[in-house]
Specification:
The structure holds two protein chains of two kinds. Chain A is an all-alpha fold. Chain A contains ten helices and no strands. Classes of the chains: A mainly alpha, B alpha/beta.
Amino acid sequence: MTMITRFLMGPSRPGIEALRPVLYRIAYAWCHDPALADDLVQETQTKAWIRRAQLRETAALKAWMVTIMHHCWLDYLRGSRDFDDIDAWQDTLESAEQNPEVCCDRKQVITCVRAAVARLPRGQRQVLTLVDLEEFGYAEVAGILDVPVGTVMSRLSRARAALKTMLDAAAQQTAVSPVLRRVK
Amino acid sequence: MKSFVSDESLNAFVDGEFDVAEEESLMARMRDDPDLAERVGTLRSLQSMVRLAYAEPPGTGSGASEIVPRRPLMQRCAFGCLILLVGLSGGWVLRSLEAQSSAASPRGHSSLGGYQSVSLAREADPNRVMLHIDSAQPEKMQAVLDQAERFLDEAEKQGRSMQLEVIANSHGLDLLRSGISPYSDRIERMKKRHASLQFVACGQSIARFTHEGQKVILLPSAQAAPTAIGEIITRLQQGWTYVRV
């Protein structure tokens, strides 16, 4: 009987464990620190297992676990001394002291994009990674981060615009001696 | 009618947040407005770059070798029996299903534009297609470009927004080599006309040609990927359809 209720009550342990790569990818895209990302995933999985009875629909397991991870990360940021507020990030963004490196090869594109994403303000980075990496709908992202849908849209739009500016700047740096230059 | 489309709406369109009617009206506007189409193309490429950047996040070393909690033996046995039962009955059902379907359709692969296509999705996605060429035969080169144009024109006529990638490796690389490709002008023209068309060259093949003492210069509209096979597999995993020409 206990076994049956346990199966009915919430997600199974393999279900939670199977989401590990997904969660890790998101966590890494948020903090760009493999060790911290691993910790976040670990903590999220533990919390999800403890609170598994709170999940109403099994279909929403992924979004629910990402919500938990979002809170874990916020807790971590509050706990650590170097808490960055968005205004401070905006400053570093505009100062552009270390531009993302040269973009020409795929591998370099990866480094380049990661560097650019890492320099986005936290809120924008979270929205961008959730939408792009896991194809969450705007409403789902709004639910996960507990912000209005309008905020999700404006953050995403600003994030992509900033990303484009940073990547364009990086691409221009490589083209210091272009053979052909576009006049238009 | 020519009101400005906000970045927010364009993002929503790219992320599939529009409903069918909104999508159709925006796509109709994109056909008349090349700037709008270019903005959408930029957002799409940003999106795929972010996806690529995190496709393989670096591991932590500790990996997935966490302590696996032991389940009670009885539960495991019950699971085992259940899986065995499901497998057996599933196999039986599938067997009869297969007999039916093989009678109905003699071919397993779908065909797209006369070529055999492969897709990991249940149905081949006509909006995301890669064409693979690995031969330097002029007729094959012509065929791949003809096919690309046919796909893109058809999509344009039906109002679909299509992404198409031409992947060249081995001797097929000649198609994208500046000074060697017989179709360089045509490729530039096609690239200019269709923003969502990409030409990708295999990095390994380039390295091999270079090793053999040939200098490889790609056409300006072509880009290099580390390996063609890697590119194909990534795209297949993303739900693209593969067509070998």
